[in-house]
Amino acid sequence: MSLNKVMLIGNVGKDPEVRYLDGNNPNSGNTKVAQFTLATTERYRDRNGELRENTEWHNIVAWRNSADVAEKFIRKGTQVFIEGKLRTRSWTDQTGNKRFTTEITVDNLQLLGKKTDNPGAQPVQGGYQQAPQPSYQQPAPVQPAPVQPAPQQEPMDISLGENPTDDLPF
Predict the structure, then answer these.
(1) I want to staple 104 with a disulfide (CB 3.0 to 4.6 A). Which of 39, 73, 84, 131 is the partner?
(2) How far apart are CA 115 and CA 112, in angstroms?
(3) What is the H or E stretch that residue 66 is in?
(4) Non-local CB neighbours of 79 within 8 Å, separated by 6+ positions
(5) Sequence-separated (6 or more) residues with CB below 8 Å from residue 102
């Protein structure tokens, strides 16, 4: 058995770069991929009691619906929760050197923080306007069926037959 699972909460380091597999044609209907960086910061006190920070940068790759969410709502500075898998790729660069990169492929992406904290929110008079959210319509409440009283029945006379110690009805 094996497990490849990554869970991160951090801030986006740059606006997502969105590409389509057949070029940059958003109307092509082909698969979309979004790439961006995510910073996670660990804060701790060292032996001298001084506050220290260690920031790690992660390369994030979001496909299809997650790429749609990234394109519409994620901007530099947005706080997000990412759940995904580690993937390592290799390629040969233009000078013939073999290169490697490790990325997190997104399985689940959730926006965190308040709308006013999101750099994707645009200021308007009297507050902030969030980029349009996908429409969601709450289902209508289910009305319970009216309860009708059970019809009155006469009590049944259950006879135990010839053997009164046998209380089984069959």
Answers:
(1) 84
(2) 9
(3) helix 64-73
(4) 9, 10, 11, 12, 111, 112, 113, 117, 118
(5) 59, 86, 87, 88
Q: For residues 10 and 74, is the Cβ–Cβ distance under 8 A?
A: no
Locate 119 and state its tokens. 């750099």
> Comparing C-alpha atoms, which of 123, 15, 131, 153 is closest to residue 75?
15
45, 21 Cβ separation under 8 angstroms: no
Tokens of 33: 């991929």
- pLDDT of 158: 52
> Is the separation of the CB atoms in 36 and 56 below 8 Å?
no
* Residue 8 contacts residue 20 (beta carbons within 8 Å): no
Torsion, Cα of 15, 18, 24, 30 (10° steps): -160
Match 């997502």 to its residue by tokens.
Answer: 16
Give 43's pLDDT tier (boundaries 50, 70, 90).
very high
Q: How confident is the model at residue 126 (pLDDT cuts 50, 70, 90)?
A: very low
